[in-house]
Amino acid sequence: MDxxxxxxxxxxxxxxxxxxxxxxLLRRGGERxxxxxxxxxxxxxxxxxxxxxxxxxIFLTHLHADHVLGLPGMLKTxxxxxxxxxGLTVYGPQGTRHLFGHLKxxxxxxxxxxxxxxxxxxDVLERGEYRMDAFAVDHGVxxxxxxxxxxxxxxxxxxxxxxxxxxxxxxxxxxxxxxxPVTLSDGTVVTPDEVLGPARPGRKxxxxxxxxxxxxxxxxAHHADLLVHEATFGDExxxxxxxxxxxxxxxxxxxxxxxxxxxxxxxxxxxxxLPAELVRQAQxxxxxxxxxxxxxxxEVPFPERGAxxxxxxxxxxxxxxxxxxxxxxxxxxxxxxxxxxxAEELQELLRNAGIEAELEAAAEDDALQVLVPEGALEAAQDxxxxxxxxxxxxxxx
Length: 397
Ligand SMILES: [Zn+2]
Ligand SMILES: [Zn+2]
What we know:
There is one protein chain. This protein is of the alpha/beta class. The protein has helices at about 40-45, 65-70, 70-80, 95-105, 160-165, 170-175, 190-195, 215-220, 240-245, 250-260, 275-285, 320, 340-350, 375-385, and strands at about 5-10, 25-30, 30-35, 55-60, 90, 115-120, 125, 130-135, 145-150, 180-185, 190, 205, 225-230, 265, 290, 295-300, 310, 330-335, 360, 370-375. The strands form four sheets. An eight-stranded mixed sheet has the order 6-5-4-3-2-1-16-17. Strands 7-8-9-12-13-14-15 form a seven-stranded mixed sheet. It has a three-stranded antiparallel sheet with strand order 18-20-19. Strand 8 and strand 9 form a beta hairpin. Helix 10 (about 250-260) packs across helix 11. The longest helix is centred in the C-terminal third of the chain and has 13 residues, at about 340-350. It is globular and about 95 Å long.
């Protein structure tokens, strides 16, 4: 059963040229669950390898604009596509029903059934093969985190042991695998523990939405394979993070460490802080940290098959991710500098971001091209973009 998360929007508070605001698609087998639906989410889906599926369930972490503004547009698109019988359920904290009251003038009469389910921390949705826990977070408003929790699975069936004990191939083995004892034709009773290896854990993914570091998150994320935690700020903005009920990269890493998770993914990041810097700050506390970009995905295999893995551009439409194997070493232009001073400033900035840039004379008089390895192009663009972001950005909501 495949399980992964596609990062559709990873920016805090507002879209930037390179990051959309909060949206995350969880795929488990054929299921498609959307977590938060910021402005532009339907377009992020359309641009992704996923496309815009007929989503049946949306989980809202809280009702701040940068997590819900994409709802009216997407719900209207479903209507325009002629959706009629297939229902849509929106789960969210208290106030979600009220929000939809306000959306009514935009939505009009939808041709398909829309159900709003308000949840409280501690609520558990039993969903057959797994459960979804709503857990408390600390954001100063009604807000929830969500944890997808699969139950443990029976241990591996030991064919050799079954042969030795004289269990014939057939239904008896199925019964043992299901956890019940069987009586053989000679009257011997064989119990499951004689033929099954140790129970194997299921998987767990915890998604916080916006939150200050919180013991309730540590508890809910305990031993998760993947914790998706917000990190709106770098550690240098700790005070701002406290005032606005958000987290720094270091805060999130501390939560991940206390919860003893396998991987931490930081999202809801401010463009003011370089992703590479957030990773560095978080990894000082918790080694297995990543900062996905839009259209990256994280695969979460069963534990015995390996660790969760970040697949860069794994959720991007195929033509956007195509580059050849020589691309990592090819130098490409990331910027043009007007003079030597500006060029050297850019070079220094990129070096601070861990990127070795080269300068090359451009066609115009004093202009210089700033070149970086193609594999580092995105990071270099991020670094230069961060220069042009407003200084007093965010972070409310
Ligand atoms: Zn937010
Ligand atoms: Zn918020």
